[in-house]
Write a structure and sequence with these properties.
mainly alpha, single chain, about 0% strand, about 120 residues
Length: about 120
């Protein structure tokens, strides 16, 4: 499962980045295409699956380091705040979801780079 967690980490970070760039490109439109919103939910799901896999590995005894765990928790909290403010996201969904995905990508990359490090 550790190899899948590693592969899925790279995949979900890249997918979130591509989705974020797409959102910024189409942010001038009043309403994004439905496909964009579906891709955003898939990217969020991919990152949440990554967090669940990390929790499973951590509970089985793997020690990824404090910083790696910290960035996984920050991604989860970021999505929780995005859910809380979902009504505001409807004003300019492509822009806000694009920025959210780019921020999540940055957190995911930072989490990947800090594997094994502690504070």
């Amino acid at each position: 499962m550790s190899e899948f967690h590693q592969f899925w980490g790279y995949f979900s970070a890249a997918f979130a980045g591509i989705t974020g760039l797409w959102g910024l490109i189409i942010s001038r439109r009043p309403q994004p295409p439905r496909a964009f919103l579906r891709v955003v939910w898939f990217a969020i799901g991919a990152l949440l699956l990554q967090i669940v896999l990390g929790v499973i590995l951590y509970s089985s005894g793997t020690n990824p380091g404090n910083q790696h765990v910290f960035y996984g928790v920050v991604i989860a909290i970021t999505f929780a705040f995005a859910y809380i403010y979902r009504a505001q996201f409807q004003k300019r969904p492509a822009l806000y979801f694009g920025l959210l995905m780019l921020f999540a990508m940055g957190l995911a990359i930072r989490g990947i780079l800090t594997f094994g490090n502690s504070f």
